[in-house]
């Protein structure tokens, strides 16, 4: 399905279909757990961009194929060796633009989380109008474990959604991974349904929004301007963390253990040479 006439490269990663004014954008790399590689992010960003101006699209459902919603950003596939200042700027711009694709989308968005969601796939979902989760969904934001800082406006938005205690449980060293029922109780998601009913119920909610004239808005009373400021700040802090020694060494060890030799050696190279290139930042 390719209702938006996506480019061939984007159509490899996402499918789109329209029903009664509701466009479904389906991440479609289930064997790769719908991980956010550069290609995947470019694909759904293109879909959002075209949906923003599509006359047939009044609201969007964003979901995933298979058992996972998304394993999150593929860190090893998004960084490469280059001049430190250029790499820092690339990380800032990439992260900021990723979340702006959600923040600046002008129509209501419902995220239908069909399974485990990790990292940016969680934080970006909270920037939409609402989240409906299947009973087998889980939510993980392992920023502290990775040695990086919060992103996706979560440094301010999570506490509003769930309260300070639950926000810190997810964002801090505890690494709390709520299941769907716990996420509903905490306020992270707004609906939970059986797996087999997820898409049907998501369609009902989105169509109800159209009947009621639901505008594009943000949960917990957050406003676009402040979320954009948070995204800009967090993107700079994240770039600083990405270029820190603890993160680089940790990524090398993790990727090496997964036998991903090429990306692991990129991180090892960055770590070994850090005493030299860090002066250039």
Question: Can you offer a commentary on this structure?
Answer:
The chain is of the alpha/beta class and 281 residues long. The chain has two domains: 8-242, 2-enoyl-CoA Hydratase, Chain A, domain 1 (Alpha-Beta Complex); 244-281, no CATH class. It is 49% helix and 12% strand. It is built from 13 helices and eight strands. It has a six-stranded mixed β-sheet with strand order 1-2-3-4-6-8, with helices on both faces. It has a two-stranded parallel ribbon with strand order 5-7. The protein is globular, with a radius of gyration of 19 Å.
CATH architecture of the largest domain: Alpha-Beta Complex
The number of strands is 8
Task: Give the CATH H-level superfamily of the largest domain.
Answer: 2-enoyl-CoA Hydratase, Chain A, domain 1
Stretches where pLDDT is under 50 for at least 5 consecutive residues are none
| Major sheet strand order | 1-2-3-4-6-8
Structural class label: alpha/beta
The mean pLDDT is: 94
Overall spatial form: globular
Keywords:
281 residues; alpha/beta; 2-enoyl-CoA Hydratase, Chain A, domain 1; 2 domains; six-stranded mixed sheet; 49% helix
Summarize the structure.
With 281 residues, this protein is an alpha/beta fold.
Helices, strands, pairings?
Elements: H1 8-11, E1 14-19, E2 22-27, H2 38-53, E3 59-64, H3 84-103, E4 109-113, E5 117-118, H4 120-125, E6 130-134, E7 139-140, H5 143-146, H6 154-162, H7 164-171, H8 180-186, E8 191-193, H9 198-212, H10 224-242, H11 245-257, H12 261-272, H13 274-277
Parallel strand pairs: 2-3, 3-4, 4-6, 5-7, 6-8
Antiparallel strand pairs: 1-2
Helix pairs in contact: 3-10, 6-7, 11-12
């Amino acid at each position: 399905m390719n209702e938006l006439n996506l480019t061939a490269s984007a159509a490899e990663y996402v499918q789109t279909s329209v029903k009664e004014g509701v466009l479904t954008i389906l991440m479609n790399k289930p064997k790769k757990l719908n991980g956010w590689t550069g290609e995947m992010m470019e694909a759904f960003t293109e879909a959002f961009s075209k949906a923003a101006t599509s006359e047939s699209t009044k609201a969007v459902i964003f979901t995933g194929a298979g058992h996972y919603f998304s394993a999150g950003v593929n860190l090893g596939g998004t960084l490469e060796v280059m001049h430190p200042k250029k790499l820092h700027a690339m990380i800032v711009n990439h992260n900021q633009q990723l979340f702006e694709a959600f923040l600046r989308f002008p129509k209501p968005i419902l995220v239908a989380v069909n399974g485990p969601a990790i990292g940016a796939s969680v934080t970006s979902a909270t920037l939409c109008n609402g989240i409906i989760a299947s009973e087998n969904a889980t939510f993980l934001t392992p920023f502290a474990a990775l040695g990086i800082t919060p992103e996706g406006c979560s440094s301010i938005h999570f506490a509003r959604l769930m309260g300070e205690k639950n926000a810190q449980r997810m964002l801090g060293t505890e690494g709390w991974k709520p299941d769907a029922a716990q996420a509903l109780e905490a306020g992270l998601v707004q609906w939970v349904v059986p797996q087999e009913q997820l898409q049907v119920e998501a369609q009902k909610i989105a169509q109800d929004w159209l009947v009621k004239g639901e505008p594009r808005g943000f949960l917990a009373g957050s406003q676009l301007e402040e979320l954009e400021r948070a995204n800009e700040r967090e993107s700079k802090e994240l770039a600083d963390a990405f270029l820190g020694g603890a993160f680089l060494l940790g990524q090398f060890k993790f990727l090496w253990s997964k036998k991903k030799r090429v990306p692991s050696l990129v991180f090892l190279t960055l770590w070994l040479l850090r005493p030299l290139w860090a002066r250039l930042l």
